[in-house]
Structures are given as structure tokens and as C-alpha cells.
Design a protein that fits this description.
single chain, mainly alpha, 10 helices, 0% strand
Length: 254
């Protein structure tokens, strides 16, 4: 049964990612937004749902260090693992003029988090500052994300497009959960330690929606969605998740 759930989880990741990319592309065309904007917002934020759930649970249980570690580890996996695999599948060629503003936000978010962690606590005041950064990012992104629609663009069924987008997100999150839970059970059966499981399966598990979405987007030549997903996810992880789940966290060097 465990192996069956593992297989189902893998299948859900594939079909969920396929539906999300297809729906998000249609939504972008309808609102005359660049695919990059949709990748940065709907796709990037949506695929960060597992990280948000893990960090919220950790904060409510009085373990803010897990919330911080989850965000930092996920951002590292997004860049080194997911972006790397996506680039191996297809060249992710995007003009710098389309990305400089979004990359600047991501670097700023990372720098702000690093500066905060030099202190002794990530307080609710810091959380409010981070969340404000998310609101500013969204305002700037949508303000400058409009594109001229093609003259021969056919009208698409938006109910269907949003259904694919939201349905794909839900399937991705459920599939990732099934895959991680079954993988942990399989690893435990073979005598693999909890520490190794936590450092590998669970750590990568929360990034599976980003991995599935970016890989499929790269394969379908939707490079803006593939890259936007990573950048948007990293920004949301810091500004959004840590903005929502702040708390005292003594760094190990203090």
C-alpha cells in the first residue's frame, strides 16, 4: 500500500504541475500579464503552500527555529536544485531587463533576513516589516507586469483556466504530502535514521511542488513561468511566510 501511495504521489505531482502551468498561462494571457508575473505570484506563491503550512505549524508549536530553517533550506533548494534541474532540461534564457526588478526584490529579501538574523530575535515587528515588503513587491509587480495583447488572441474560457490553476495547486500539495509520507515510511522500513530522513526526504519534500512545476514549465518552453516560480517562491518564503510566522529565534552563534 505504501508503494502504491508513493506512485500516486508522483503521478499527482506530474499532473498537478501540468495543470498549473497550463492554467496559469491562460490566466496570464487573459489579463494581459506577462507569464513572468503569473510565475512570480500565483505559481510562485501557490507552490510555497507546503512551506507555509510547515512554518505555521512550527510557529504554533513554539518551534520558530524550524520555521526559519524551513524557509532558508527551501530557498537554497529552489536555486541550486530546482533551477539547476530545469536548466538541464531546457536553457532558461530570459533578457536581464525582464528580471532585474524581481531579482532585486529577491536579493533585498535575502539581505533583510540575513541582517535580522544577526540579532537575537525575529520579532513581530520584523514580521510586519517583512510582510510590508511582500505588499510592495505585489504592487510593483502588477503595476509593471502588463503587456500588449496579440491582435489575433482568441478568448479563452477563464473558468476553465482558473480551474486548472487552482486544481493543479491542490493536486500538487496533496501529491507532495503523499510522496513524502510514503517515502518516510519506506525509508524507516529499511532502517534509515530519522536524521537522514529529515535532511533528505522531508527537506526536499516541501520543494516538490516548485520542482514539478518548474521542470514541466521548462519542458513546455514556458521559461518565464519556470524562473518566475523560483524567484516568486523565494520572495514569498521570506516576506510572506516569515512575515506571518515571526517569533524569537536565537541564532546558534549568539
Amino acid at each position: 500500500m505504501t508503494y502504491l501511495l508513493f506512485t500516486i504521489g508522483l503521478a499527482m505531482l506530474f499532473f498537478g504541475g501540468e495543470a498549473l502551468v497550463r492554467g496559469a498561462s491562460a490566466v496570464a494571457r487573459h489579463f494581459h500579464l506577462s507569464p513572468m508575473v503569473i510565475g512570480l505570484t500565483i505559481v510562485g506563491f501557490g507552490t510555497s503552500a507546503p512551506e507555509l503550512l510547515v512554518s505555521l505549524q512550527a510557529a504554533l508549536e513554539g518551534q520558530p527555529e524550524i520555521a526559519i530553517g524551513n524557509v532558508v533550506g527551501s530557498n537554497i533548494a529552489n536555486i541550486l536544485l530546482i533551477l539547476g534541474i530545469s536548466a538541464l532540461i531546457a536553457p532558461l534564457i530570459i533578457p536581464a531587463r525582464q528580471m532585474w526588478r524581481d531579482l532585486a526584490f529577491m536579493l533585498a529579501a535575502t539581505a533583510i533576513l540575513w541582517a535580522m538574523l544577526l540579532g537575537t530575535d525575529v520579532t513581530r515587528t520584523y514580521g510586519a516589516i517583512l510582510f510590508l515588503g511582500l505588499l510592495i513587491f505585489l504592487a510593483v509587480t502588477f503595476k509593471f507586469g502588463k503587456v500588449e495583447p496579440p491582435k489575433d488572441q482568441a478568448e479563452e474560457n477563464q473558468l476553465k483556466a482558473w480551474g486548472f490553476t487552482l486544481g493543479g495547486l491542490i493536486v500538487l500539495v496533496i501529491g507532495a504530502r503523499l510522496l513524502v509520507d510514503s517515502a518516510v515510511e519506506i525509508a524507516t522500513t529499511y532502517g534509515i535514521s530519522e536524521a537522514v530522513i529529515g535532511l533528505t526526504i522531508v527537506a526536499v519534500g516541501t520543494s516538490l511542488p516548485e520542482l514539478a512545476t518548474s521542470v514541466i514549465a521548462a519542458y513546455r518552453k514556458h521559461t518565464e513561468i519556470a524562473v518566475g516560480n523560483i524567484v516568486g517562491s523565494n520572495i514569498f518564503n521570506i516576506f510572506g511566510i516569515l512575515g506571518i510566522t515571526p517569533g524569537p529565534w536565537p541564532p546558534p552563534w549568539v
